[in-house]
Structures are given as C-alpha cells and as structure tokens.
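Write out the bound-state structure for zinc ion.
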Amino acid sequence: MIVKLTEFFRNLPRKKCLECGNVMEEQHDCYGNTCDKCMKVTQL
Ligand SMILES: [Zn+2]
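---
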C-alpha cells in the first residue's frame, strides 16, 4: 500500500508555479501552486 502511494506521487508531474511558470523542485503540497517567490509577493 505504502509503496503504491509512493509510486503514485513520483509519477505526478512536477508542479509549476501558476504565477511565473517556474518548476518547483520542492514538493510541498500544502504550498499550493505558486513558488516561494510568488508566495512572498502574495503575502505582501
Ligand atoms: Zn512563481
């Protein structure tokens, strides 16, 4: 079960920032679809 879940997430395409289009290397699902830079901009 756990192995299948791991493979599932590995097969997922890399997240791209919806704001600037940069590929986000870090996999933080809780961050949403924006990179750190755009997140900071949004928070300002
Ligand atoms: Zn961005």
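---
Residues 17, 19-20, 22, 34-35, 37-38 surround zinc ion (CB under 6 Å).
The chain has a mean pLDDT of 75.
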